[in-house]
Every structure is written in structure tokens, then in C-alpha cells.
């Protein structure tokens, strides 16, 4: 493998700092006039791809490709990725349907369909490394990277908090990924091609500089459709209802243990005796 | 040392710590505190036990709230007696925190009768020592009068009690899709009453104008206990019936009356905000040209325009070494000045295109060397933290900081900084001179960090800076006010005749001079 092509998938979601409101009819989240941005974990993925090129050297990396699956507005997200330093973009255009329940993209496209689309793009582009955010902050599915790896039959290093590429190891190009797991940190070594999903502590995404923003305007964005990629967008589950989490009741200060016991009994937390 | 001896010599009531002991317990060197404080006025009474009982009746509803409303414990009083910079420390034996206007009125009625001095205090974040007592004035804290009273949806007018914290009020307005027309670094602590009494401005001044145009109503308690309703809650943008008395109290720094409630006209929050940090070369004319262009080309979407010099940013970087982001333009060593520019408009795509076109042009023309554009709200907030963190970074950079808040014509805006540096080089005093400011408002914050706690260094700066500003037709206090720090400096920016009329107004509203004495021109 002489020339690494890195694919980074990015998603457009409601900005992380925005206070999300549920629509009164419970059908979804209010996205009207709400600020949208690139999913924070996708930003981290873009940043990591750029850093991999900086570490390996530009001669070892063929190019960095940003890909997004979504409606027209996702072009903005691609431009952000290009402004950060990606070389070109691929926009898999999904027709505008009724706004999805999570409001993140105006499509109810599920992770399985997105993974299918990304698999087709990866095949077309002969990518050797795909980097994604671990999950999107609108649906919190945490599925796309894993489904994609399975469809491609590639190894996967998910929840990455550190990534190191070794170009000249005896097994060929490998990626050593430190994963954040419940028990602590787990380190795995994967042979390329592979899929990596990024966790919060992997890096801090850079700002888009003005010169790069100007350059990004001229970088090419290829448009593809779901049909030409032969992706089946049929949803496999239906959203029933979206509601706010139940309000946390204010705590009550009790004056002594007896009062505590009385209250616990009244709330039915203690057996009657 | 002389000053310290002077302080200890002052007689203090038996139920508080002496100022010397206060200083010790605060671990603050004496040199950091004001060496010069006016003598305690003999016409002001001292608190007696009888006074304490009577005042307790005024401000406490019942014994349950007494502890919160009536504070005499020396340790608890330290925070109220000390200003934000730990430079001005009073020796008040009493802090009262009423919850209702009637209690404030009862208190002032009593205090005027007894000739007891009162210092109104909001969030105590002022930078001129105006919010703390100089001697034993009773501290009247508005902290417990902090409710939002009313929201008028059609006009976006919010009515609050004086003790409501700015950040909380802004968040409240945010829920209704509006923004409070004021924003400053101290927003987490400062209170609306204090903001109005000091006529605070800050980074939203450029867009929303001065508070004077935004306060639609006010309730204020006068020195004799009279409660004056000045259009509170009426939410009228226009009212030309007689003299606009509200304007007297706005910016009066608690010397004409105590503001207890305010109605403020807010503005719809912009749907699309874009924040950019720009690096310019070391030529202030470039900064001025950028500012002019921004006001013309970005016009109605221009939201904020702040400037920082390289020295200030370097100081911040040194403080934050190890922090993840720091200065996003650190890789550009040629930047001599930084400008934080923010737009706030209706349609994200249009605004972004307009801003990018403006910035692209500025780069092509060589006006801007480099810059970054925030891609999401978190990055936007990080850029603002850089600007808002300067004041605190400077306070921590050295044992002593001299802060000057000046209004100057654009052409001389940075000259004052350069000439201050030159002057300090010739006097041989090694001090760091850094500056930042509200570029669009002609307001520069000149800060000088002294390497040692030597008060002699102040003589190198004052009154030279004030005289310089006066000569160039500027103001010695653009937004921070006068307080204790600049008492006696008003004449640098106001005529004697004007000051005489101000004194006449003060005599009329506060004939016994009990409200916030020793401040403004009462020195």
C-alpha cells in the first residue's frame, strides 16, 4: 500500500450548545430556526484524519475525502470539513422528506442505510481507512461505524482515544487504536483497511482558518444519489413518540431519621411492618 | 507602611475586626490596598446597638430570615467589605439584605434620620471600588431581591428586581427568543441594579446602544425613604412627559438613590451568529480601517467588534500554557493586533456568505493577515473566553495592576498605550503594558502590570494618563465609573460648572450625604 486514501463521514446535527425543544405533538424535535453544525464527534474524526496525514507525511497519503449522507443543507457541513483541511467532498444527496424525529437530518435514514451508502462509496473510492465519529448527538445510535465495518468485512477500532498508524510494520500497514471501554483503556492493533470511530478525548478539532475557508470554496464536491449507489432507504423501525425526560423532582430535606422513615413508608419504599 | 499605621489608628466599633487584622486574614499585602482614603466624615453617625435593633426590624420579616438579611459576623462581612480586585477594603460592621422595596425604604428613612451612611451593593464586581464601604458605611446588598417580575412578549420588555444576576436574566430572555441588551465578563455575578446604577456597557453596546436608551422604567428609593416609580412595568419605548428622571439615577453609582426594580427593553436574539478572530499586522491604522469597513459592509448584522493587542494575548497564553486551545492564531507570529468580530443576523447562509466575502476581501487587500471562523457555538464561546479572560489573566500576572478605562477619538486610541509604554521605559520602571477594548465604541482598556507592590510606581502613571486623555479630548472613565479610584478625577473630563451642577443635584436628592459617601466627587 503506497498511497493511503482516508474517508471521513460527517453528519449535520443540531448544534451541541443549543437547548433542544420537543415539538408539542411529540412527533419530533423542533428544528425551525435552530443552529445546525457538524456533529462534534465527526469534527474530531476530520481532525484526526488531517493529523494522520501530518504525521505520516503528505507523500504517503493520496487524499482525504469527506463524505456526508443527507439533504442539500449538508453541503454546508462538507464545506466545514473542507475548510478544516479535507481535500474533496462527496455528497450522497437524500431527498428532503418530512423532518426526521431527531431533526438532525431531514431524513429518517437509519444507520443501516447510511452504512450501506458509505460502504458503496468506500468501494468506489478504494478507501483504505474510514474514520467516523463514535455516534451522532441527535440519535446517539452508535451503530454506523460498526455496521460499516461488518459490511466491508474490515476490522474496527471504536471509541478511539488514541490512534497511531504504522506504515512499515511486518504485517503491512496497521493502526494501533486505544479504545475507551467501561473497564478502562483497551489497545488493539488493526490491519488496514479498517474502520475507526472517534471518542471525545482523541483530539481537539482545529478552527477553520480564513485562508482554508477561501480555498475550500474551490474544492470539488461530487454529488451522488441513493439510487446510483443502490442503497435501500426503507426504514426498519418506526418512531412512536418523542418526549422530554421527566422532570426531576426537587429533593426534600428531612429533619431527622424518624421523618426519613415516615416519608419512605409514605412513598411505598419500605415494606409495611 | 505609613498608610497601614494610619488605618489602624482609625477607631473602629468593637464588634468588628480591625482593618489590620482583616488584611492579615485575607493575606493581602498592605501595599495592594488603597493607601489614600479620605478621613471619616464627622457628620456621619456611628452605629449603636439601638440602631442595630431598629434596622433589624426594618429589613427582617421574622427571625427565620434574620440570619440571611442581617449580617454582623466579621468573617461573613469580609466578602461584602472587599472589592473584586481585593484593593479596596471597608470596615463596615453591618450588611443588610432586604427582600422588598418597603424594607429598603424603611431602612433609608431610618438612616437619614440618624445620619447613618449606606453603601448600596449589587454583585460587587465593579473595578473602581464604588461598591464597597470606605469606612463603616452600612452595606445594603440587593442580592436577595433577585426575581424576574414580568415579561412583556409583544415588546420584549423584562422587569426585574435589582438583585437579579445578569446571566440569569439573559438566559430568561433567551427562553423567549430575546437577548438582554448588556453583556460583560462579570455576567455570572453582576446584578441588574448595579449595572443600571453604574451604566455598564460591554460587548453588546455596539449593537444595542447604551442602557440609557433601553431602560424603560425604574423604581428607585431616595435617601429619605421615598419610593419613586419612574414608569416601571409600563414598557413604553417613548414617553416625553416632563424630565426623564431615570437618567439621573442611571450611572449615579448609588449616590442619588437606590435602584430597586428595572424594566429593560430587550431585543430579539439573532438567529444566526458567526464569530471570527482576526490577526492584523502591527499597524493600528489597519485595525481602524477594518473597523470602518466592517461597520459599512456588515452594517446591520455587525454584532460585536473587540480588539486586543499582542501583549495582552501573549500574557493570556502564558497564563493558560497547557490549556487545549489558547490562541488559535498562535502560529502567526506577525500578528500585532487581534480583532474579535461577531455578526448576528437572521439567515445563516446569507450572513455567512456576506461575512466570508468581507473577510476574503480584507485578506486579499492585506488588511487581515490571518483569522479563524468558529464552526459551532462551542468554538464561538471559546473565542469569547479568550477576550473575556484578559482582565482576570492580567490580575493574576503580577502582584499589582493599574487599570485604566478610557474613551478616546479613534486616531489616538492606541497612541495612549504606545506612549504609556515609552514613558515607563524612560522612567526605568519595568512594567507590562497591555490593552484591549471595545473597538467599535472607542473604548480602550489600558492595563499596566507592576512587578512589585510598590505604590511609587503609581506616581509614574497618575495623573499623567489622565492628563494625557484630557489633552486629547477623551474620557478618563468610559464605562467603569468613578467610585473611589477616580474620585477627584472627574475634572479631567467635565467642566467645573458641570461638576457644580452635579453637586447641586446631589445636595437636593441626598441633603445629608448618606448615600455612598466618599465616592464620585464626594471625596
Task: Describe it.
The complex is a heterodimer of chains A (273) and B (523). By secondary structure, chain A is of the alpha/beta class. Chain A is 25% helix and 28% strand. Chain A is built from six helices and twelve strands. Chain A has helices at 40-56, 74-84, 111-125, 144-152, 210-216, 257-266; strands at residues 4-9, 12-14, 36-38, 61-70, 88-93, 129-133, 156-169, 172-181, 184-191, 194-198, 208-209, 221-225. Chain A has a nine-stranded mixed beta sheet, sandwiched between helices. Chain A has a two-stranded antiparallel sheet with strand order 2-3. In chain A, helix 2 links the parallel strand 4 (61-70) and strand 5 (88-93). In chain A, helix 2 crosses helix 5 and helix 3 (111-125) packs across helix 4. The termini of chain A are far apart. Chain B is α+β, with helices and mostly antiparallel strands and 523 residues long. Chain B folds into four domains: 2-18 and 270-391, Alpha-Beta Plaits (2-Layer Sandwich), CATH 3.30.70; 20-141, Uridine Diphospho-n-acetylenolpyruvylglucosamine Reductase, domain 2 (2-Layer Sandwich), CATH 3.30.43.10; 148-268, Uridine Diphospho-n-acetylenolpyruvylglucosamine Reductase, domain 3, CATH 3.30.465; 398-486, Alpha-Beta Plaits. Chain B has a seven-stranded antiparallel beta sheet with strand order 15-12-14-13-17-18-16, sandwiched between helices. In chain B, strands 5-6-10-8-9 form a five-stranded antiparallel beta sheet. In chain B, strand 5 and strand 6 form a beta hairpin. The longest helix of chain B is centred in the last third of the chain and has 17 residues, at 348-364. Chain B starts with a helix and ends in a 14-residue tail after the last helix. Residues 1-35 of chain B have low confidence and may be disordered. Chain A: Pfam families: ETF (PF01012). Chain A: Heterodimer of an alpha and a beta subunit. Chain A: Keywords: Electron transport, Mitochondrion, Transport. Chain A: GO terms for molecular function: electron transfer activity. Chain A: It is found in: Mitochondrion matrix. Chain B: InterPro entries: FAD-bd_oxidored_4_C, FAD-bd_PCMH, FAD-bd_PCMH-like_sf, FAD-bd_PCMH_sub1, FAD-bd_PCMH_sub2, FAD-linked_Oxase-like_C, FAD-oxidored/transferase_4, Oxid_FAD_bind_N.
